[in-house]
Amino acid sequence: MRGKKGQLVIGGLFIVLISLLAACAGDDTGGDGDSGSGGAITLYSPETPDLTNELAAKFEEVHGTPVNVNYAGTNVLVNQMIAEQGNPQADVWYGGGGILPFETAVDKDIITQYIPEAAEDWEVTENGIKMKHQDDYYVGTEIFVLGFAYNTELVSEEEAPKTWEDLLDPKWEGKIQFPNPAASGTSTLMVLSYMMQHGEEEGWEYFQKLTDYANSIPDSGSSPTKGVAMGEAEIAIGFDFMAYELKENGEDVDFIVPEETPVLVNPVTLVKDGPNPDGGKQFMDFMLSDEAQEILASWNHIPINPDVESQTPISLETVQEHAIDLDIDWVNENYDRIRSEWNTNIQ
């Protein structure tokens, strides 16, 4: 009897132990539960890892919830979310070089609707800038401006180009770099915006001339601006923050906002059927808070929150007059085609 009783005691302890382990597993903070709330948040982002990790750390400091950051290029993350449909691993997606990948994601059915309270009263489009999706599928967190970086040791502010047509001045021949539109979303935006204004025939003629003036057309969106900093080129096409980050680090680089140019928000969105939707919504709310916006500003991004001051010479207010109206439907319809035709039409 004593031996059998001992076995019963051991068996009872074993059951208790299993129950405790099961309870711990059910309380796991990895965001894999089906409760829709609580646990860690999984963030997909192509933005600079140090930036996204800083945002994640601040969120955990403010809300007490950890954020697991998964970094990869925009196209890689989009394809991953498509592959994960039916079993999504991410809760929230932030950043992608502007709104274009997010517009495409709506059609691919990988994101869902949510707008933070702070943005509920925003107009969809303000002064030519689309601030949020018309059906609430994403909201802007910061402003990106497409323009010209220049090497301040080689080019004065007065002689730097002020319009897209100025780039075709013969004095810039062999001194320009811009990203490959067949590979870079930054450069695809440049091509599409010009063609929307001037038509495809004139657009292809323009970019053939611009290509003839370029000394390098790398695949990376940030490489031309880095090339300017290294003196490999005098002028580069890229986003504003790329130049200002280098300038802050002591490089001889500055930035020109063209008279008319694409100005885009960089959004955040909720992944459809993600494991922790409540956490994802909370992170979206956080991205418009003073704490997150101050971090973005410290990385030379233009904050969308009017209560947070831009750390660069440009702000949402100063760039609105430069923004061109983007026909988003036309962009969505022609994005892949124009990108694929680049190598065929440009020699």
Structure description:
Pfam families: SBP_bac_6. Keywords: Signal. Strand 1, helix 2 and strand 2 (67-71) form a beta-alpha-beta unit. The protein is globular, with a radius of gyration of 24 Å. The longest helix has 25 residues, at 2-26. Helix 2 packs antiparallel against helix 10 (290-298), helix 5 packs across helix 6 (200-213) and helix 5 (185-198) packs across helix 12. It has 2 domains: 41-143 and 264-321, D-Maltodextrin-Binding Protein, domain 2 (3-Layer(aba) Sandwich), CATH 3.40.190; 144-262 and 326-345, 3-Layer(aba) Sandwich (D-Maltodextrin-Binding Protein, domain 2), CATH 3.40.190.10. It is of the alpha/beta class and 347 residues long. The chain has 12 helices and 13 strands.
- Uncertain runs are 1-36
The ordered H/E elements are HEHEHEHEEEEEHHEHEHEEHHEHH
Radius of gyration computed on alpha carbons: 24 Å
Instruction: Report the CATH architecture of the largest domain.
Output: 3-Layer(aba) Sandwich
Shape: globular
Output the number of helix runs.
12
Q: How would you name the CATH homologous superfamily of the largest domain?
A: Periplasmic binding protein-like II
- Structural class by sheet pairing and helices: alpha/beta
Which helices and strands occur, and which strands form pairs?
Layout: H1 2-26, E1 41-45, H2 49-63, E2 67-71, H3 74-83, E3 92-94, H4 100-108, E4 111-112, E5 125-126, E6 129-130, E7 139-151, E8 176-177, H5 185-198, H6 200-213, E9 214-216, H7 223-229, E10 235-239, H8 240-248, E11 253-256, E12 263-271, H9 277-287, H10 290-298, E13 302-303, H11 316-319, H12 328-345
Parallel strand pairs: 1-2, 1-3, 8-9, 8-10
Antiparallel strand pairs: 3-12, 4-12, 5-6, 7-10, 7-11, 7-12, 7-13
Helix pairs in contact: 2-10, 5-6, 5-12
Keywords: Signal
Signal peptide: 1-25
Pfam families: SBP_bac_6
